[in-house]
Structures are given as structure tokens and as C-alpha cells.
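Problem statement: downstream parser choked on a complex file, so we are re-checking the raw output for the thiamine diphosphate run. The parser issue turned out to be on our end (a line-ending mismatch), but while we're here, posting the original submission so the record is complete.
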Amino acid sequence: MKIDKLSTKNESTWCPGCPNFMILEAVKKSINNPKNYAIVAGIGCHGKMYDHLNLSGIYGLHGRPIPTALGIKLGNPNLKVIAFGGDGDTYSEGMSHFIHAFRYNADMTLIVHNNQSFSLTTGQSTPTTQQGYINGDSPKGEINTPLNPIKLALASGATFVARANAMDLNHTTSIIKKAIKHKGFSYVEIMQKCLIFNKDMNELDKIMYKIPDNKNLSNANKYADQWNYNSKKGKMPLGIIYQTREPTLFEKMKI
Ligand SMILES: Cc1ncc(C[n+]2csc(CCOP(=O)(O)OP(=O)(O)O)c2C)c(N)n1
Ligand code: SF4
């Protein structure tokens, strides 16, 4: 098998056609000097990114890719650190880390693979699952409304918030490249269909549209409000929803 520098020979356990393959490709296209990078993954289908990227790092715990990535960054500030999380991983068990990461503003990147489902554990509801979704955990349908992590990120002091569509390789790649370049904590949510669970939300491409890079917080909040994670209607903006420059963690610590 011929493999490039960033690939591994590990067997894939993703379902054939899973959009995680597209996210993997976008990440590979965004990395130019692998020795400068370290990665962390949570546990879930998204976590298999760790198996397929020939990069240093830690295959972390469910919900904990952010603090693990922060530990790596503190250990070696010269590294570019990327954390991969699922929507269950990041917005449920890992939620406190998500909020504080924006306050700390350490210079690293979080990529959330949002398929609106705890897919590896057979499709239970996550905090961004739509109301009414029937699954093994909620046989009568999910009773709660989803939270909006983009709004939460903005309210928590985020300096870089972006959303991408896993199926749009070029756009996703350009966003990941900008996220890695950002000075501070960059958060990229990649909307990703799951081919097996919560397939109800697999037609969201119809409401997606691209926005120009935005540096205005009031506009960012308007973009965030355009889609509530609950509906298949409305408009879902893709692109850099907000970017600003604030002191990073190390600048604040003066190291
Ligand atoms: C500390 C801990 N809590 C719970 C689990 C069980 N668990 C493993 S994977 C997973 C679901 C992952 O869902 P998500 O993060 O959305 O990722 P996906 O599989 O959808 O990519 C859960 C709940 C675990 N392994 N460790
Ligand atoms: S269960 Fe869903 S997210 Fe997991 S590998 Fe299959 S298609 Fe991808």
C-alpha cells in the first residue's frame, strides 16, 4: 500500500462513506510540517482520527481532548496542537473544558465532528440532537431542545469560531488552515452526517450557505442565531463566524 507521510497503515473502522474520511483528508491537506504538530482525540467515531494521522499526540479520554491538548501545549509551547472531539464528547462530558478554553485562549485548535449523535455507542442523543429524535436512550423521542454551541462559544469570549460542512473538502480545508494560523484558541465545528444514526438530520446541506470572514461580534451573534440545531429549516452559515485578536494564555502568563 502506498501511503503519504501523514497516513498510517491502521485499518479503518469507519463505515464506508463516513464523512469522517473527508474531515481526515481536510486535516491532512492543512498540515505542511508534521513535526510541528501534536494531536489529541476524544473517544468516539471521530476519535479514530488518531489512528489515521501519523502525528505525535495522545489518544485521550472521552470528553477530555481539550485539557489534554492544553497540557501538551504547556509542555511544549512551540507545537501546534489540534484536539478532535465529537459533539457528545465536547458538549456533554467535556462541556466545562469547552467554556474555559475560550477564556484561557491558549494558542491551539479544536475541531468538533458534529453528527448530532453519540454514534460510536449506537446513536444516543447529545446536547446538539434535535427534539423528537427516537433512539435507544429516548424511545419516545428526545424531550429536550438542543443547545447552540456557537452562541455559547461567543458568549464565553471565543476569539475564533467557524463552522464547516464535512462534505465540502476545499472549504473545510481553507477553514482549518485559518484556524491553525489563528493566534489564540480556534474552534471549528464541522457538521458531519452519520450514515447510521440520526439520519433525520442528513439533509442539512440544503440550508447551508457560505459567509465572508466576519470580525464583528454583533454580526457573529446574528449568524449564530440563524440555526438552532433543532430544525431542518432556516439558514446555516458556514465559514469564519467570528475572529478577533485577544491576548493568548501564554501572553497573559508572560512566557
Ligand atoms: C469517560 C467516558 N464516558 C463515556 C464513555 C462512553 N463513550 C465512548 S464513545 C461515546 C460516544 C461518542 O460520541 P461523540 O463524542 O458524539 O462521537 P461520535 O462517536 O459521534 O463521533 C461514549 C458515550 C467513555 N468511553 N468514557
Ligand atoms: S457510525 Fe456514523 S459516524 Fe460512526 S463511522 Fe459509521 S457513519 Fe461514521
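For whoever reads this later: Strands lie at 37-41, 56-59, 80-86, 109-114, 160-165, 186-191, 208-210, 236-243.
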